[in-house]
């Protein structure tokens, strides 16, 4: 084993597209000497140029996998940031040929968690440790402080803990990173995080739709309202940038740019919450509009603007709680299934900075799970439950108004349905159980005694005690 020479780098990073370059510069800036590598040599040169321009950062470029790996201090840690799927396998193959037992590979891409679990076992044959690390925050985050979600080998995490704690976004209760859990948990958590992110964006766009098309608000008014909302319980990165968007004029024409943008949604990243998947799938652009000749926003006249704005704010907040509750419960269900032991309060904490969903509200989620780590759902936490009850009248008014105006609000509707499912003591699933028992002998349970039961429904229905006959 070579001595820890100062010429050797503390960590390596392979894959120098936008995210890779920015993360490498961030690591170097925090004082950790880093080696970088990319098959396309111009990418290495670009990164070296940037490191030079941004203040002689401790970053060295390497042009072959072997030189790159041998430039690292042992035990080696290498972050790879390439496209998910086979490029990851190819990069692992190229690098691991030169690595030793005890070294670590960290995949920082948006990988499907089961692929990470497969690779974890695969490299373990050579004694190599493995992490699948969610990196959130886009270009800006990667460069100045992302939210990091590393899962896999705990020893591998310990090997890079000092680095990730400095590189991650910093908030008042610590760096936005924690060891997530074993296996592919880091990737799974990142995927759900992305689902929550798209859910937030969908809910905000629905609030905008109602305010604009029912309330008849102008972009200038919308900008003011979102700025105002950003000073209260909705304070978050997404609300803040939305306020900015309404203020940008179209440099190539009249009015604001937002009105000139085609309402098309690119399927980027990992979309999760069903409502936004639906909204995206249904409407791919303006091509097939006007098919139904329906004028939306018909109820605009005679609306109390002030009240509508306040109702929409409350509907947005309550919907957001339900959306996060669903995301958190997805994580909890998977955690139980896989034995990951996820700490949901910690996850809320590491999302408070760096990432797109950063919001004041996440601190309250963190506290709800600290109060009760086994919370069945965020909507039954006493504080959140009280807030939802206070807002439900406004929430129902907004959804009702949108429905009668012919404006679809799938996110707000789905959230309200989720809340009502929790709120009601008894759901109509008894009838579904009866139907399944009738046609498939699936059996059912009873509310008044234990055991499984089966009934000859058709035979009994035809036998005399038939309600129609009784009515006559
Ligand atoms: C290097 O750059 C190319 C093109 O930008 C990219 O496709 C490739 O995955 C990168 N990564 C590695 C490890 O070579």
UniProtKB/TrEMBL annotation:
UniProt cross-references to PANTHER family, sorted A to Z: 6-PHOSPHOGLUCONATE DEHYDROGENASE (PTHR11811)
Designated name of the protein: 6-phosphogluconate dehydrogenase, decarboxylating
Residues of the active site: 190 (proton donor), 197 (proton donor)
Subunit structure of this chain's protein: Homodimer.
Entry keywords, A to Z: Gluconate utilization, NADP, Oxidoreductase, Pentose shunt
Sites where the protein binds substrate: 110, 136-138, 193-194, 198, 268, 280, 436, 442
Domain 6-phosphogluconate dehydrogenase C-terminal intervals: 186-458
UniProt GO BP: D-gluconate metabolic process; pentose-phosphate shunt
The protein's Enzyme Commission number: 1.1.1.44
Functional note: Catalyzes the oxidative decarboxylation of 6-phosphogluconate to ribulose 5-phosphate and CO(2), with concomitant reduction of NADP to NADPH.
Binding site for NADP(+): 15-20, 38-40, 82-84, 110
InterPro entries: 6-PGluconate_DH-like_C_sf (IPR008927), 6PGD_dom2 (IPR013328), 6PGDH_C (IPR006114), 6PGDH_Gnd/GntZ (IPR006113), 6PGDH_NADP-bd (IPR006115), NAD(P)-bd_dom_sf (IPR036291), Pgluconate_DH (IPR006183)
Species of origin: Camellia sinensis var. sinensis (China tea)
């Amino acid at each position: 084993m070579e001595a820890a020479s100062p010429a050797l780098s503390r960590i390596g990073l392979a894959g120098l597209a936008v995210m890779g370059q920015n993360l490498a510069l961030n690591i170097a800036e925090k004082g950790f000497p880093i080696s970088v590598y990319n098959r396309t040599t111009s990418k290495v040169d670009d990164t070296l140029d940037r490191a030079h321009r941004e203040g002689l950062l401790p970053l060295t470029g390497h042009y072959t996998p072997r030189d790159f790996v041998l430039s690292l201090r042992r035990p080696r840690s290498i972050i790879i940031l390439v496209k998910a799927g086979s490029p990851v396998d190819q990069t692992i193959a190229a690098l691991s040929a030169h690595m030793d037992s005890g070294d670590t590979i960290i995949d920082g891409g948006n990988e499907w968690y089961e692929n990470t679990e497969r690779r974890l076992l695969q490299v373990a044959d050579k004694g190599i440790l493995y992490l699948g690390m969610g990196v959130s925050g886009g270009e800006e985050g990667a460069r100045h402080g992302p939210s990091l979600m590393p899962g896999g080998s705990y020893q591998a995490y310990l090997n890079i803990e000092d680095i990730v704690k400095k590189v991650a976004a910093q908030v008042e209760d610590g760096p936005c990173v924690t060891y997530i859990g074993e296996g592919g948990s880091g990737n799974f958590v990142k995927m759900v995080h992305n689902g929550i992110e798209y859910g937030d964006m969908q809910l905000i766009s629905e609030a905008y739709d109602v305010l604009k098309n029912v309330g008849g608000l102008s972009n200038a008014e919308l900008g003011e309202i979102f700025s105002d909302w950003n000073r209260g319980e909705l304070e978050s990165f997404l609300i803040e940038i939305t306020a900015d968007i309404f203020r940008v004029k179209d440099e190539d024409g009249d009015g604001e740019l937002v009105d000139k943008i085609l309402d098309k949604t690119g399927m980027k990243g990992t979309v999760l919450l069903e409502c936004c998947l639906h909204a995206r799938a249904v409407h791919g652009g303006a091509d097939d509009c006007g098919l139904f000749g329906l004028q939306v926003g018909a109820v605009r006249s005679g609306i109390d603007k002030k009240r509508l704005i306040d109702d929409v704010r409350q509907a947005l907040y309550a919907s957001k709680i339900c959306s996060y509750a669903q995301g958190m419960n997805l994580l909890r269900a998977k955690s139980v299934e896989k034995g990951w032991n996820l700490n949901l309060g910690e996850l809320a904490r590491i999302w408070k900075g760096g990432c797109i969903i950063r919001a004041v509200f996440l601190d309250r989620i963190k506290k709800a799970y600290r109060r009760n780590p086994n919370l069945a759902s965020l909507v039954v936490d006493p504080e959140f439950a009280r807030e939802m009850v206070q807002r439900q009248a406004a929430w129902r008014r907004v959804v009702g108004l949108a429905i009668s105006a012919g404006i679809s609000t799938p996110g707000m509707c789905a959230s309200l349905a989720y809340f009502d499912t929790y709120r009601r003591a008894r759901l109509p699933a008894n009838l579904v159980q009866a139907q399944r028992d009738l046609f498939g002998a699936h059996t059912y349970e009873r509310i008044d005694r234990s055991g499984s039961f089966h009934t000859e429904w058709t035979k009994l229905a035809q036998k005399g005690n038939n309600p129609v006959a009784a009515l006559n």
